Description:
Layout: E1 3-7, H1 11-22, E2 26-31, E3 42-45, E4 48-51, E5 57-58, H2 61-69, E6 80-82, E7 85-90, E8 96-100, H3 103-114, H4 118-141, H5 153-160, H6 162-165, H7 171-175, H8 181-188, H9 207-214, E9 217-220, H10 225-238, E10 241-244, E11 248-253, E12 258-263, E13 266-269, E14 272-275, H11 279-286, H12 294-297, E15 304-312, E16 322-325, H13 330-340, E17 349-352, E18 367-375, H14 384-403, E19 411-417, H15 419-426, E20 458-460, H16 471-484
Parallel strand pairs: 1-2, 1-14, 2-10, 7-16, 14-20
Antiparallel strand pairs: 3-4, 5-9, 6-9, 7-8, 11-12, 12-13, 15-18, 15-19, 16-17, 17-18
Helix pairs in contact: 1-10, 1-16, 3-4, 4-5, 4-9
The chain binds flavin-adenine dinucleotide.
Amino acid sequence: xxxxxxxxAGIAGLAAAxxxxxxxxxxQVFEHRPYAGGKLTQITVGNYRFDAGPxxxxxxxxxxxxxxxxxxxxxxxxxxxxxxxxxxxFWEDGTRLTSYADIEKFSNEVxxxxxxDAAAVRKMVEKNKFKFETVGNxxxxxxxxxxxxxxxxxxxxxxxxxxxxxxxxxxxxxNSRLKHPKLVxxxxxxxxxxxxxxxEASSILNLVGHLELGLGIAMPKGGMHDISQSVYKLAQDxxxxxxxxxxxxxxxxxxNVANGVVVAGQTxxxxxxxxxxxxHYAYEKLMPNAVKPKxxxxxxxxxxxxxxxxxxKRSFPELILHNALMSSDPKKEFECIFKDKTITDxxxxxxxxxxxxxxxxxxEGCENWFTMINVPHIEGDQNWDELIAKxxxxxxxxxxxxxxxxxxxxxxxxxxxEPRILQERTFSYQGSLYGISSNTRTGAFFRHSNFSRRVKQxxxxxxxxxxxxxxxxCLSSAxxxxxxxxxxx
Length: 489
Ligand SMILES: Cc1cc2nc3c(=O)[nH]c(=O)nc-3n(C[C@H](O)[C@H](O)[C@H](O)COP(=O)(O)OP(=O)(O)OC[C@H]3O[C@@H](n4cnc5c(N)ncnc54)[C@H](O)[C@@H]3O)c2cc1C
């Protein structure tokens, strides 16, 4: 029987393992942490449960697809509902706005609250849909590093449409056509969904807005953690063998063919190796003597996150599952993150409250606040203890101003997540959330490939390689890898 080894049980590693097992390989997964899921995990603080990492769940059909393509019924493993009221937005001047899955309703809300013609909003949403429908499949479903990916009608159509894709304009430039600064800010925020800067990233990234406003946001029945656990269960049912608390120290190379790994001095052989670990560290730590794709690895990293998991001993009817308290100076906010590598005094605060949807996540009458701001990745001589203290103070002051409250008196449990912890726990290089950023006009197209050009039988999946970070995108990388690898049967 042919064998495969997967390094890392992040969501992409789990999906790749399940897919390869169902293609006839005997798969073993080595995971350094004691659990499956990587960043997509949960924590408990006092009487509160939190999804520790991702909270915005787009394209749930990509999860379903892992089950169907492995010959199983997704409903036997995973349940979710679509969210109607997507996000409550708050600004310091008292402006409030809800984005809805129903675009008619959303555009009317924008017209009512911001005075922007509803038709202009619908036009922008349509444009983003056009971008997604033109390049989505090419970018998300195939390797960009194989000629056969481009020899099809879809690619020809995309090439013909290049002038309409606004590839060489920034997101902010294109979104500025919406005229109202608050609405521009709302649409620019989608850049942060892959850790990028809307003032630098190509407007092609506006297609992310379509994932949320066009295709909609989902919520798993028991919280985001259900996603990784259901795929983990699938992999187990198919026969994948897991080794938790096992850090891979080396990828074995025999004349430029990967044929196993070394874990705590023990050798495990396999016909192929799939690496779900951050590709930067994979080269540095597991293959120090291999030739490195320097240009790819040196691309600027994505932003990171500072999260306060707060158990709040009261409830807030004005807040829903997803909430954003918007910065009054978004340009400065992004300059701080990406240029100065620091934290602004007035960050955009995202508050995710799963207890609004998942029973038991907080005690009766209380709420579990996942309170997050975007921060730079680790670089230079940052003093993270100082930055965290500053971030916490700014967050509390802003929440107090906007919700007209003294929030600190209601925080009865707290845990902090920050770039150093992310780097240490999941070996994410420089503590970046999404691998490299898309802060150049073409950056999104030049991530590391899903296979090694120099080492045979070595493949890569996960947020640090093509197509990039975020749950659905990581699941795509697992699909691309499994599609490239021939059946073992
Ligand atoms: C705070 C936060 C908020 C986020 N918000 C969202 C969101 O709202 N929506 C969204 O879609 N995405 C979001 N993301 C991003 C998303 O979580 C990631 O893109 C995705 O989960 C990454 O999955 P992955 O497969 O690349 O692996 P990872 O989750 O990075 O896991 C890699 C695994 O490999 C293991 N590993 C590494 N090295 C070794 C080794 N040498 N040996 C053995 N094991 C090893 C690690 O321990 C880890 O478990 C967020 C992330 C964070 C941290």
